[in-house]
Design brief:
This protein is mostly helical and 76 residues long. It is built from 2 helices and no strands.
């Protein structure tokens, strides 16, 4: 007679991997979302703040530092 073994799932492992699966996309998505929102919220006339998407990211970095891209982790 053979014995069947049933794999036991470890909840802590599932919670850990689920948390990483939720955080990793935000790390890569947030700078592009920031660029999109800032580009869409500017007025397109002679006083436009950004010349394009790269200019938006560069000016944001220079004016606000790296914290502008890590704002996704700050509590509101």
């Amino acid at each position: 007679m053979s014995s069947l073994t049933i794999p036991i799932r470890i909840p802590a492992k599932d919670i850990t991997f689920g948390s990483f699966a939720g955080m990793v996309p935000q790390v890569f998505e947030h700078p592009f979302y920031l660029k999109k929102v800032r580009s869409q919220s500017q007025v397109f006339d002679t006083t436009a703040r950004f010349d394009g998407p790269i200019d938006c990211l560069v000016k944001s970095w220079k004016n606000e530092g790296v914290e502008v891209f890590t704002a996704v982790f700050r509590r509101q």
